[in-house]
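User:
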Amino acid sequence: MTETAYKDLVPAYADAKVRPAGSILVRIFKEESELEVWKLGADGRYALQKTHPLCRWSGKLGPKKTNGDRQAPEGFYRVARSQMNPNSKYHRSFNLGYPNPLEKSLGYSGDSLMVHGACSSSGCFAMTDEGVGEVYAEAEKAFALGQGDFQVQSFPFRMTAAQMARHRSDPNIAFWRNLKLGYDIFEVTRKEPDVAACGGRYVFDTRRKDGLPIEPGAACPTMETRVAPEVAAKRADDAKTLQALLSEGRGGTPMSYVDGGMHPSFRDMLKRLWTKELASKTSMTAVQVSRPDALVDDPAEAER
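Assistant: Predicted structure:
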C-alpha cells in the first residue's frame, strides 16, 4: 500500500495521508540532545526504534528566525527523497525543509538546515557519521516501501508539564505551548499529527468547515479539530500538574544555552580528551577544542 497522493497545496500542508507499514517518523529534542527514529507498525501506530545522541547543535532553545542566527530550528517539517544527500561533505545529510509553510508566512529566513554527520554545526543537528548513516538507511528503506516523505518534529525539550513549568518565563513559551499541541497527539496516540498553519501558529488534525485549504499566511477560518479523548485527558492532566508546580514554587530554573549543546556522552568524551591533552601537552589530532564543551563549528550555513 502506498500513500494517498498529495494535493498540490502551496504553501499549505496536504491532507492526512495513509502511510505504509515500515514508514518512519523522527523526533528531535534540543535540551536532551537526542534524535529518535520511530517506525510504523501494522497496527497503524509508531513504535520507537532507536534513540540517537546528537553530538552538536548550535544556538539556543527557541525557533530559528533569521539567516545567519546559528539557530537550529524548532517546528514540524517533512523530508522527501529529494532532500536526501548521500554525497554530503558531512558524510550523509537530509534537509529539514526550513522554512516550512508557517515559517515562510512569518517572514523567517535561512536555508540548508540539515541533519548530518561530522559532529559540527552552525544551525544544523549534527550526529556521528555512524549515527546519521543509520538514520539515512532507515529513511531509504521507508522510501522503498512507498513512503513519500517523513515527518520531523523538532522540539526544544521533552514537553512535560514539569519542563513547561521550568521554562515558563522564556520569551518563547507561547510558541512552545503551540508545539506541545502536536507533541501531545503523538505522545498519546503514537499517530502522526496532520500539520497545517494559520494565524501565525500551527494547527493539528484540523479542517476548514468549507473544505478549502488552510492558508498559513491568513487568519484562522472556522474549523473542525479532531481531538482524541485520551489526548484531551492528557492536556487536562498536564494543566493541573503545571498549576500545582507553579503554586508550590517548583518551576525550577531553565538550562541556559549560549552556543548550542551536545549529548552528555559526547561531553564526557571531550572532557576525557581535554584532560588527556592537558596531561600530555600535545594537541588533539581528531578534534580541536578551545573548551571541553564545544566543537569547532561550520564556517557558514552551506549546503550539506
